[in-house]
Amino acid sequence: MFDPHTVLAVLGIAIAGGIIGLDRTAAGQFMISQPIVAGPLTGWLLGDPTAGIVIGASMELVWLLDMPIGTFVPADATIGTISAAAAAALGSPAGASLPVIGFSMLMTTAIVPVTMQADGLIRTWNSRLADMVLSAPGEDRGRALTRAQLTGLALFFLKSFVLYCLFIPLGIAAVGLFGHLPGAFHRALALFVKLLPLVGVALVARKLSMRTIDQYVLIGFVSAAIFGQAIHAPAPVILMFSAIAGWLGARYNERRA
Q: Whole-model pTM?
């Protein structure tokens, strides 16, 4: 399982992931650390872009609105996404199946508290660096500031690098054990992958408040989904039924008012 090729791949992803992780808050902020980018990039580097796309898109929906604003330290979605994509790709050399992808994403729930704790510790240490700069003599403050900036970047990189070196091998081993579980577990995880985007959409809708979403658009969307699955009608017919359902919903709401 852990042949030289796999070990080198883990180290390579740990280095790349450490650099990508700097984009979260430490440097750049070009958004490459977002799951929707980091996941496919990891999958592409490891030869399984499909797993990376599915994991990245799903994780983006789940963690979309968790942002490091003020003193709030969110879960490191970048580490979770890259670790899941790497575990799925390296644990299934022939290509990760849907159940393996689901299992890899499910494992990330266990690492959320660890990433938050590690992020908090690094932020605390970096605040001490700022205090050291302020206490430096005036003529040395410029050099002290440069050293503090570079040290802070190095600490953020090392935090991600160490966590990847820990999480990815554990994930690969867990994926290997998952392959020996009964078929019921595999079917359940395949269903998990299919339903997870709906959970992500629900989380976004809840945080944004459903009042910001046009209820008639929702009625039309739900109607289109039901008609499309129930009667398998052509697209124009489904659109017509959806428009009628939205119009009826609007008239009902007017009568209630």
A: 0.73
